[in-house]
Amino acid sequence: MDEMKQFIQFKMGLNDYAVEMSCVREIIKPVKVIDLLGAPEFVQGIAKVREGVVTIIDLRKKFLIKPTDEGEPRIMIFESDKETEKVGLWVDDVVEILEVEGNSLERIPDIVHQGTIKEIIKTEDNIIPVIDVEQLFSNEVLTWLGSSDPELIDKAKTVQGS
After folding, report:
1. Model-level pTM?
2. Signal peptide location in the record (predicted)?
């Protein structure tokens, strides 16, 4: 029997996506977000969550995904080794927790950008891209997403050159 993995299925716009459940620290209702001057457009800002500060990312803005009025918006806060680097992803709705057997997961096609999608969940009537959270928030991908921070870009170039 194949190993079971758990995913959180969510909506951005009209499409479903998923992340591995082990990457998510908590899911919260929207909170007040403070704009950050000079931040890329897809960085909504920062928010106080409990006693910490979380950077809120809205990938809909980066990938030109039209928001939907369906569902209840949520912020998924991801695990981080560093307390100062907590990141939250704004989503249009959290759909459900999926338990998926290994044979229902498929490698992504080579044409898909390797830094954003990790694998694909196949269900009876749908396919759901799984976002690679580690890669999504890595220096290389942040540069690819359009960061204008010269220090971050230099780090990413160093990583790519190694």
Report:
1. 0.80
2. none
